[in-house]
Amino acid sequence: MGASDLLDFGAGRGTKAVTAVYGGDANFAAGTSMAAHQVVSKAATTTTVTSSINPSSAGKNVEFTAVVNGAVGGIATGTVTFYDGTTTLGTVHERGEGESHNFKTEPRYAPCDSDV
Questions:
Q1: Running along the chain, 116 residues long, what does each successive block of 10 average in pLDDT?
Q2: 67, 75 in Cβ contact below 8 A?
Q3: The domain containing residue 63 runs over which residues?
């Protein structure tokens, strides 16, 4: 005899000690298995960022929107930090709705004559 079931550990991470308990019947006594230790890791994410206007000009407000998707569904929470290279532009709290932040472009982001 064999029995199986698909278990969903939800958002709970860590090591789970899963046991199976057989209730017995008229011919066989009840019994409990040894624990099978199942490691549940964090789910992977994919993060995308978009700009409200590109290209922009110096002094214009540009809104960047970050969307975080979980590989197995669910809603990602926490923070999203926007960077220009290694310079932090700002941080917003992710609520699973596509978080955005307005930034005013600095003159250094405007194309110079040699770039045209």
A1: 60 82 93 91 84 84 80 76 85 64 45 36
A2: no
A3: 45-115
